[in-house]
Amino acid sequence: MRAPLDRVWSFHRGVDGLAALTPGWMGLRVEGVTGPDGEADPNALDPGSTVELSVRPFGIGPRRGWTSEIVARERGDGTAYFRDVLVEGPFPEWEHTHLFYADGERTRCRDRVRYRTPAGPLAPVADEAAKLGLDAVFRRRHRRLAASVEGE
Questions:
Q1: 24 pLDDT band (50/70/90 cuts)?
Q2: Of 101, 141, 111, 146, whose CA–CA distance to 5 is shortest?
């Protein structure tokens, strides 16, 4: 995207960036954010911070809770990343690493998600549906990120 790493990294500093990138059809609601020291609504999502969300995709069914913990956040020379893991939510396992690479005045963004859908007889179908859905969500997130930071 046409934005320097500093701008992209700053955008991902707090929970507002997450809310801005989540598609409206997910019905995202931020229920609470706690810093590593127990502070409510911290300015930055540092390691040890927890984010409590709920979603209600397409406005159908009950809200589903999703609690993540930021377990790593590092900025280096021309690179940056942060990682969140699911503490409580719909997947038995979820680890999301957000990777950023400086490329002159541009930034390349990558997402690495390791997850497991609930087991059972429909697990292969659930795995494929999750992959298709996540691919679409992350494509849209990257477009929204570019639109959010390129114009600043």
A1: confident
A2: 101
